[in-house]
Amino acid sequence: GNMALNLLSSRTWSASGMSESLGDLAFTLLLANTNGSSDTNSLLWQDKLSTKDDVDDVTTLWDRPLFVLRDRAMDNNHGHDALTLYLQLLCAFLSHSEEDIMSILSSPSKEMNNTNDLPPLTAVGLSSFATLCSSKEMTCSSSTKLSGTSIESVCPRDEVSDTIFNSIDTLARIIECVRPKQSVFGGDNTGKAEESSTTASWVRTVVCIIPMVEYLINIQARFDFQTVFEGGGSKKTTLSDSDAKSLLDSGLFRELLSLYTCTQNESDASNVVRLQLLRTIFAMSVQSPNTLGSYAIRVPDLVKEVHASKFMDRHLVDGILWTALGSSLLESKSEAPKPRLKLRTNAKLNLPPSDTTTLAERCSTGFEQLCKSCNAALTSYKDIVGREDQSQDDENNVQKHKETLGSIVKFSNYLSNCPHGIKIWLDSLNNNDDAPQKAKAVIADLRSILARLPSYADEETGVTGADHKKDDDNDNLITDDHSEVRLKATSMRQRRKDFRQVVSLVRSSVKVIALALESQKGAGLSLKTPMLSYNASSKTD
Q1: CB neighbours (10 Å) of residue 354?
Q2: Helical segments of 391-434, H only
Q3: CB 72, CB 78: distance < 8 Å
Q4: Distance between CA atoms of residues 376 and 379, nearest Å
Q5: Cβ contact 86:19 at 8 Å
């Protein structure tokens, strides 16, 4: 059936009203299938036990027309002729459950059992939006162009972005719904029995909302600050001042911050998503430092965590970036002192003695630590690659070195892909008298190490004579020896190939940082640099 519908031309599809029919069918079946139920788990994230009644119940097939409509909406060959109605359907999923969400928010604490779970229609709408924003069809270079030849031609990227912006008020209420509730007397309103359900609910919601936010700001901060759109996008793919104000006025940015600060004591598994949420909040803040950034760094519970030395030790790059943002906005010598806002909070603002240094000093120290750790990783990595035989410890150390070197690639991507990234970092360096000189010195040391590393450019050739056989009585023995030699040689060539790739990425990253240090204006780089994608996974099993 799906293949037959895909064969329909855009003219026939539109004349037959296929988009409207599929949308109405999917909405009706899903609404009938849930039947007012709030059990989202049974609908989306848990396998339902198939029974004869389920097979006979047509409402359980609600996903079939939805997926057909989704595939047609993402089909560039037909000009994305179903995209507009598909987006309208997803918005209907979100807005239809507004009353359910408001009833959750207004319910008393004694009736809070499992009410943090989103209504099924809302969950379907969120997951569908996340899939759409992460799809290649919506992020490729062709998504910026008008699709189709009819008067109903659409620009996919603009269509999706506008739809998300029109839904930010609803998204704010959704986050407020799943956010763990705090009693005015301290402690959670939800008990231990509902803790796992509450955690799963906000985690699932954040996993869906983050791709939507990333689509608006064109930065995947959770993935090494790479751009969302193919080719890096353009200035139009970043937040404007009016867009940032809309995110703030709608309450979405405030709710994201509240969700992060009220989930500090979650499990390790939830902390992975929580860290991704924090990086997304930072990406939003650095896109609009005067609006969103200024708001974020005045949230006491947030800055108490991200400006602490303990946070810098665990997440070095994140600590550098947050202290740089804070220093640029709060400690800038070039601007007049700004009024200090007094915000209510349950957390004490007294920093431990180890954090009495300025934000600029902490940022500078963190950057020096980043460069020195990369120096040590490069030196050790080179020694390991030069060995013919490697132990399991060597392979583990290589993996750690790749992760360390990936940090400087991530920092370089931040400078390259975030519009205000260079200016914010240079502002923080200039707020500390000797920080610019120290930064240039450690970068010079790193470039010196890179210049002395072996290139292994001649490692592409095979082992000479490895395939040669001698005509004597020991043919089998010699063949086995040659096979072992070939195996070792192949393994070494692969390790050195990985080494060259990693060093090439680090060298490009260091060049970007050096150019940023030389650009005192901080408006951008004079050299166009490609987006650096880094994978720390080992290829030498």
Answers
A1: 10
A2: 392-417, 421-430
A3: yes
A4: 5
A5: yes
Q: How far is CA 339 from CA 328, 336, 342, 346, 499, in A?
A: 15, 10, 10, 22, 51
Reduced 3-state DSSP string for 215-229:
HHHCCEHHHCCECCC
Taken in order 405, 409, 410, 412, is the CA torsion positive or negative?
positive
Whether pLDDT at 231 is above 60: yes
Q: What is the tens place of the pLDDT at every residue in 321-340?
A: 999 999 999 987 554 444 44
Assess contact for 281 and 213: CB atoms under 8 A: no
d(CA 483, CA 182): 66
The whole-angstrom separation of Cα 139 and Cα 534 is 19
**pTM attached to this predicted model:** 0.83
Amino acid at 373: S
Phi and psi torsions of 311, nearest 5°: -65, -40
Exposed (0-12), middle (13-18) or buried (19+): which is 2, by Cβ within 10 Å? exposed
Distance CA 355, CA 362 (A): 8
How far apart CA 179 and CA 374 sit, in angstroms, is 39
Q: What phi and psi, each to the nearest 5 degrees, are found at residue 431? A: -80, -5
Tell me the DSSP string of 517-540: HH-SS-S--SS--PPP--------
Does the pLDDT at position 296 exceed 90?
yes
Statement: residue 66 has pLDDT above 80 = yes
Asked if 355 and 309 touch (Cβ cutoff 8 Å), the reply is yes
Q: Tell me: the pLDDT tens digits for 265-274?
A: 766 778 899 9
How far apart CA 38 and CA 118 sit, in angstroms, is 7
Contact 287, 420 (CB under 8 A): yes
